[in-house]
Amino acid sequence: MPQTSVVTGGAGFLGSHLCDRLLADGHRVICVDNLDTGTLENIEHIRNGQFEFVQHDVTEYVDVAGPVDYVFHLASPASPIDYLRLPLHTLKVGSYGTHNALGLAKRHRAKFLLASTSEVYGDPQEHPQSETYWGHVNPIGPRGVYDEAKRYAEALTMAYNRQQGVDTHIVRIFNTYGPRMRPHDGRAIPTFLRQALEGEPLTVFGEGDQTRSFCYVSDLIEGLVRLINAEAHEPVNIGNPGEYTILQLAETVIAVTGSTSEIVYEALPQDDPTVRRPDIGRARELLGWEPTVGLEDGLTMTLATLRPQAATPAS
Ligand code: NAD
Ligand code: UDP
């Protein structure tokens, strides 16, 4: 009897890569997604006997037929332009959606994993960020709808673990990129790659001196699969500690694509974190996990999936 995994948000960027991995590991996979920011294209290649797609909004009661061994809860708008466009929905997904996903795990005695985020650290006053840091979030700023939804989701998950005995796990995901990100999803890497390939200027916000640490998707997925099977219930950072300014990122994208695009500077969005870099000591110790793909290699692999559809770079 194969193990059954439910993946909420399974038609999105990370969720679809997770479905691929679980199917390769021999699981039966049920993907629950309302296609708000995901697409059927992401899961077209796996719509076979072991994979089931259920179009459903997780803010409504969720159940699936038959036994469930794992619930991976990834459903949520994730890009700033999505959660700024969908503020109330983002709060509901983090609260009602996480409640429903935890209820599903409890009913089926399944292991549960919450996809949380480095945004729970807000604009951090501690650098790099370790899991013991409580964060510096503006609850009433525009990003608060996402940050606080995820913080609430973490609190709910710990309560289900402590009070209801559900075998829960929390991953704090740091900026992750790779194939299947939507070219217009607004996040820095897909935006810069699209702009570079179209010969358009790369739009760096602020002076580009804010930092981020970018993890390639295959490394992240390996971390999720290890974590849901670990003993740890406390949050675990998964990310690549290689830290770059956004200007360095734009320059790296230009170099990797061979583009002649220039860089232009635009207004910095409110509450944009000034620095971000994971302390991955806990992931190393508990999971024996390390990222293996550097930024240039990861960008090159992402680019290889974009070139066929993308416009030829200006010469
Ligand atoms: P994504 O937008 O590609 O995927 C999110 C998926 O959730 C989409 O398929 C969307 O349709 C689905 N969804 C949204 N609301 C839903 C609802 N109410 N019911 C059912 N499905 C719903 O984003 P992603 O980058 O793949 O992010 C996946 C998860 O990982 C999110 O929870 C996000 O917060 C978290 N995360 C991602 C990153 C990253 O760098 N990619 C960083 C931190 C956290
Ligand atoms: N960013 C940018 N230009 C863009 C998109 C994003 O300079 O076209 C910046 C953004 O202000 C932030 C960083 O890149 O400082 C990462 O943004 P992203 O949306 O990818 O992730 P997050 O802000 O959630 O870390």
Structural overview:
With 315 residues, the chain is α/β, with parallel strands linked by helices. The protein has 2 domains: 197 residues, Rossmann fold; 87 residues, UDP-galactose 4-epimerase, domain 1, CATH 3.90.25.10. 36% of the residues lie in helices and 17% in strands. The protein has 9 helices and 13 strands. The strands form 4 sheets. It has a 7-stranded parallel β-sheet with strand order 3-2-1-4-5-6-11, with helices on both faces. Strands 7-10 form a two-stranded parallel sheet. The protein is globular, with a radius of gyration of 19 Å. The C terminus is likely disordered. It binds nicotinamide-adenine-dinucleotide (NAD) and uridine-5'-diphosphate. The site of nicotinamide-adenine-dinucleotide (NAD) has 28 residues, from helix 1, helix 3 and strand 5.
How many angstroms separate the termini?
Answer: 55 Å
User: C-alpha Rg, in Å?
Assistant: 19 Å
Give me the side-by-side strand order of the main sheet.
3-2-1-4-5-6-11
Which spans have pLDDT < 50 for at least 5 consecutive residues? 310-315
Order of helices and strands: EHEEEHHEHEEHEEEHEEHEHH
SS-based class:
alpha/beta
Mean pLDDT: 96
Give the ligands present: nicotinamide-adenine-dinucleotide, uridine-5'-diphosphate
Structure, briefly:
With 315 residues, the protein is of the alpha/beta class. The protein folds into 2 domains: 4-176 and 215-238, NAD(P)-binding Rossmann-like Domain (Rossmann fold, 3-Layer(aba) Sandwich), CATH 3.40.50; 178-212 and 242-276 and 293-309, UDP-galactose 4-epimerase, domain 1, CATH 3.90.25.
